[in-house]
Amino acid sequence: RDLSFYSLCEHHLLPFFGTVDLLYVPRNGQVAGFSSLAKVVETLARRPQIQERLTQQIAQAIYQALAPEGVLVQVQAQHLCLSMRGERKHGARVATRTVLGQLEERHLQLLAHAGRSR
Asked: Among this protein's residues, is 11 annotated catalytic?
Protein backbone atom coordinates (compact mmCIF):
# COMPACT_ATOMS: atom_id res chain seq x y z
CA ARG A 1 0.00 0.00 0.00
CA ASP A 2 1.12 3.52 -0.77
CA LEU A 3 4.15 2.71 -2.92
CA SER A 4 5.31 6.13 -4.14
CA PHE A 5 6.19 6.72 -7.78
CA TYR A 6 7.13 9.54 -10.15
CA SER A 7 6.53 9.46 -13.89
CA LEU A 8 6.25 11.70 -16.94
CA CYS A 9 3.06 12.22 -18.96
CA GLU A 10 3.77 11.15 -22.53
CA HIS A 11 1.22 13.65 -23.89
CA HIS A 12 2.40 16.82 -22.16
CA LEU A 13 5.90 15.85 -20.99
CA LEU A 14 5.02 17.05 -17.50
CA PRO A 15 5.42 15.00 -14.31
CA PHE A 16 2.74 13.04 -12.56
CA PHE A 17 3.28 11.38 -9.21
CA GLY A 18 1.40 9.51 -6.55
CA THR A 19 0.94 6.14 -4.92
CA VAL A 20 0.22 2.58 -5.96
CA ASP A 21 -1.83 0.14 -3.88
CA LEU A 22 -1.32 -3.55 -4.69
CA LEU A 23 -3.35 -6.57 -3.68
CA TYR A 24 -2.74 -10.08 -4.93
CA VAL A 25 -3.87 -13.54 -3.87
CA PRO A 26 -0.87 -15.91 -3.99
CA ARG A 27 -1.19 -19.29 -5.67
CA ASN A 28 0.75 -22.20 -4.17
CA GLY A 29 2.41 -19.90 -1.64
CA GLN A 30 4.37 -17.95 -4.26
CA VAL A 31 4.84 -14.45 -2.85
CA ALA A 32 7.05 -11.51 -3.74
CA GLY A 33 9.02 -9.36 -1.36
CA PHE A 34 7.99 -5.75 -0.91
CA SER A 35 11.19 -4.53 -2.53
CA SER A 36 10.44 -6.60 -5.64
CA LEU A 37 6.98 -5.06 -5.96
CA ALA A 38 8.43 -1.57 -5.44
CA LYS A 39 11.01 -2.26 -8.15
CA VAL A 40 8.26 -3.24 -10.63
CA VAL A 41 6.46 0.05 -9.94
CA GLU A 42 9.67 2.08 -10.17
CA THR A 43 10.80 0.43 -13.41
CA LEU A 44 7.47 0.86 -15.20
CA ALA A 45 6.98 4.44 -13.97
CA ARG A 46 10.43 5.46 -15.19
CA ARG A 47 9.35 5.78 -18.84
CA PRO A 48 7.05 8.49 -20.20
CA GLN A 49 3.50 7.18 -20.34
CA ILE A 50 -0.09 7.60 -19.26
CA GLN A 51 -1.49 6.60 -15.88
CA GLU A 52 -4.02 4.13 -17.31
CA ARG A 53 -1.30 2.15 -19.07
CA LEU A 54 0.97 2.27 -16.02
CA THR A 55 -1.80 0.75 -13.91
CA GLN A 56 -2.38 -2.04 -16.45
CA GLN A 57 1.33 -2.75 -16.86
CA ILE A 58 1.90 -3.10 -13.12
CA ALA A 59 -1.02 -5.52 -12.81
CA GLN A 60 0.12 -7.55 -15.84
CA ALA A 61 3.73 -7.73 -14.61
CA ILE A 62 2.65 -9.13 -11.24
CA TYR A 63 0.12 -11.47 -12.84
CA GLN A 64 2.71 -12.88 -15.25
CA ALA A 65 5.60 -13.11 -12.78
CA LEU A 66 3.76 -14.65 -9.82
CA ALA A 67 0.77 -16.34 -11.53
CA PRO A 68 -1.45 -15.40 -8.56
CA GLU A 69 -5.13 -16.20 -8.36
CA GLY A 70 -5.90 -12.50 -8.69
CA VAL A 71 -4.38 -9.02 -8.75
CA LEU A 72 -5.79 -5.57 -7.99
CA VAL A 73 -3.71 -2.46 -8.67
CA GLN A 74 -4.91 1.06 -7.90
CA VAL A 75 -2.91 4.14 -8.82
CA GLN A 76 -3.71 7.60 -7.46
CA ALA A 77 -1.74 10.48 -8.89
CA GLN A 78 -1.48 14.23 -9.22
CA HIS A 79 -0.77 15.43 -12.75
CA LEU A 80 1.06 18.70 -13.25
CA CYS A 81 -0.61 18.93 -16.65
CA LEU A 82 -3.91 19.31 -14.73
CA SER A 83 -2.40 21.85 -12.33
CA MET A 84 -0.55 23.96 -14.89
CA ARG A 85 -2.72 23.80 -18.01
CA GLY A 86 -6.37 24.34 -18.86
CA GLU A 87 -8.62 24.17 -15.81
CA ARG A 88 -5.74 24.49 -13.32
CA LYS A 89 -7.12 21.94 -10.89
CA HIS A 90 -4.45 22.22 -8.20
CA GLY A 91 -4.18 19.13 -6.02
CA ALA A 92 -6.68 17.09 -8.04
CA ARG A 93 -5.92 13.37 -7.89
CA VAL A 94 -6.76 10.89 -10.63
CA ALA A 95 -7.47 7.26 -9.68
CA THR A 96 -7.16 4.27 -12.01
CA ARG A 97 -7.65 0.60 -11.23
CA THR A 98 -6.92 -2.71 -12.94
CA VAL A 99 -8.25 -6.01 -11.63
CA LEU A 100 -7.22 -9.41 -13.02
CA GLY A 101 -8.04 -13.04 -12.32
CA GLN A 102 -10.17 -14.20 -9.41
CA LEU A 103 -10.40 -10.71 -7.95
CA GLU A 104 -12.06 -9.36 -11.10
CA GLU A 105 -15.37 -11.13 -10.47
CA ARG A 106 -15.38 -10.19 -6.78
CA HIS A 107 -14.55 -6.58 -7.65
CA LEU A 108 -17.49 -6.41 -10.08
CA GLN A 109 -19.81 -7.87 -7.43
CA LEU A 110 -18.72 -5.22 -4.92
CA LEU A 111 -19.23 -2.43 -7.45
CA ALA A 112 -22.70 -3.75 -8.35
CA HIS A 113 -23.64 -3.95 -4.68
CA ALA A 114 -22.39 -0.40 -4.05
CA GLY A 115 -24.49 0.85 -6.97
CA ARG A 116 -27.65 -0.81 -5.61
CA SER A 117 -27.20 0.65 -2.14
CA ARG A 118 -27.46 4.25 -3.40
From this structure: yes
